[in-house]
């Protein structure tokens, strides 16, 4: 089961914003520091934190909090 | 370079890792660079030009639209017995060329040694005020000689993948048959390279790990058993991501993009030759060479490394 507080912590650390800035509708379009470089770091940090492997065909597309949550929930459903 | 751009050197280094690029002198030709790389590869391999039966020039920026740059190299090095052709797979050219050369050697016993060259003169097609291309691209050449070896060593497998959904994302239209140069003025919006960085980034992180996994599967090699990786030197951060995404770290690869920039299809060839010269590729080790190019095209091959004469990469 996904711990959203942990996800917010990871995202805030990588994106260099306050955890409170990570909202349900947050995305690459709404967080100025969320660029392509930070996105690479974010994918690897999420994999490290949640001990999952994000599928290659999802890694470039999960550019919003909602999409990250959706993919993580699916990866963690049996955990 | 930053004088014409609205970014700082620090910003460029943070985003790309690239600190230096090479720009060919005005009178230089791509075939000059290709010839020099070819001569060095032949010397390293201990193979004479007369023994070369195939020359593949991998480039999108050769001397002319035609004849192929490989013909000029054949003439320059006096490889009079060699079949020649150029291969245009953008930055995947050299990796594709290695597979094509080894495939030719497998089916044609008359091909004793093959010379595969990656060469680019990107600077001739760059707008120095375009941050999407100017900060990355560079000029250079690299080459490898492939020779025969006992089965079980050399190239073990290759995989290719094309996602043409972003066909227009990286392009050079001017001079193509849809945008001929006659009857019009030079138009920088058509006659210079264009690159959609975000689309390229997305394509690369989606498909580059996949094509590496496929190549390993086709070669019956566990990805976790691979000893070393050579990547197209497009962006240091991208290489860092891909190597970590497939379960390794930067100690398992060699990068020179920081000091050379992105030299297109020459980049994996230059990285490979430098890695060989530094003794990073030991005989018997499993090596993967992988690249992404416009189209978008992805290529990877898996090798059980073996060197003849100290330098040439063996094929079969």
What does this structure look like?
- The complex is a heterodimer of chains A (79) and B (316).
- Chain A has 79 residues and is mostly helical.
- Chain A has one domain (4-76): ACP-like (Non-ribosomal Peptide Synthetase Peptidyl Carrier Protein, Chain A, Orthogonal Bundle), CATH 1.10.1200.
- Chain A has helices spanning 4-15, 36-50, 56-59, 65-76.
- Chain A starts with a helix and ends with a helix.
- Chain B has 316 residues and is an alpha/beta fold.
- Chain B folds into two domains: 16-147, Thiolase/Chalcone synthase (Peroxisomal Thiolase, Chain A, domain 1), CATH 3.40.47.10; 154-314, Peroxisomal Thiolase, Chain A, domain 1, CATH 3.40.47.
- Helix content of chain B is 33%, strand content 22%.
- Chain B contains ten helices and twelve strands.
- In chain B, the strands form three sheets. A six-stranded mixed beta sheet of chain B has the order 2-1-3-4-12-11, sandwiched between helices. In chain B, strands 5-10-9-8 form a four-stranded mixed beta sheet, sandwiched between helices. A two-stranded antiparallel sheet of chain B has the order 6-7.
- In chain B, helix 2 packs across helix 3 and helix 7 packs parallel to helix 8 (236-245).
- Chain A binds chain B through residues 35-37, 40, 43-44, 56-57, 59-61, and chain B through 14-15, 197-198, 201-203, 205-207, 209-210, 237-238, 240-241, 244-245.
């Amino acid at each position: 089961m996904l711990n959203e507080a942990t996800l917010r912590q990871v995202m805030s650390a990588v994106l260099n914003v306050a955890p409170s800035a990570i909202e349900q509708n947050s995305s690459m379009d709404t967080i100025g520091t969320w660029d392509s470089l930070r996105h690479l770091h974010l994918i690897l940090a999420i994999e490290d934190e949640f001990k999952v492997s994000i599928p290659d065909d999802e890694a470039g597309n999960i550019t919003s909090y909602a999409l990250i949550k959706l993919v993580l929930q699916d990866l963690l459903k049996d955990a | 370079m930053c004088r014409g751009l609205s970014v700082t050197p620090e910003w460029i280094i943070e985003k790309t890792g690239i600190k230096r690029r090479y720009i060919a002198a005005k009178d230089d030709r791509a075939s000059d660079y290709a010839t020099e790389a070819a001569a060095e590869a032949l010397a390293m391999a201990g193979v004479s030009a007369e023994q070369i039966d195939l020359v593949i020039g991998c480039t999108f920026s050769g001397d002319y639209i035609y004849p192929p740059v490989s013909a000029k190299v054949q003439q320059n090095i006096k490889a009079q017995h060699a079949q020649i052709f150029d291969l245009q797979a953008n930055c995947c050219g050299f990796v594709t060329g290695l597979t094509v050369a080894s495939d030719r050697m497998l089916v044609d016993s008359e091909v004793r040694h093959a010379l595969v060259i990656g060469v680019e003169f990107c600077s001739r097609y760059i707008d120095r005020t375009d941050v999407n291309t100017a900060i990355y691209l560079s000029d250079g050449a690299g080459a490898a000689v492939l020779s025969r070896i006992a089965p079980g060593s050399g190239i073990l497998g290759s995989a290719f993948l094309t996602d043409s959904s972003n066909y227009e994302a990286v392009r050079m239209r001017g001079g193509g048959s849809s945008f001929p140069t006659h009857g019009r003025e030079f138009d920088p919006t058509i006659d210079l390279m264009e690159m959609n960085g975000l689309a390229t980034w997305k394509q690369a992180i989606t498909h580059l790990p996949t094509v590496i996994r496929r190549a390993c599967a086709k070669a019956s090699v566990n990805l976790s058993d691979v000893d070393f990786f050579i990547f197209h030197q497009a962006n240091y951060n991208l290489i860092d991501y891909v190597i970590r995404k497939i379960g390794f770290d930067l100690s398992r690869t060699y990068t020179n993009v920081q000091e050379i920039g992105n030299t297109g299809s020459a980049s994996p060839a230059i990285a490979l030759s430098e890695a060989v010269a530094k003794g990073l590729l030991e005989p018997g080790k499993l090596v993967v060479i992988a690249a992404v190019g416009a189209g978008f095209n992805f290529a990877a091959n898996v090798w059980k490394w073996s060197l003849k004469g100290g330098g040439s990469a063996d094929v079969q």
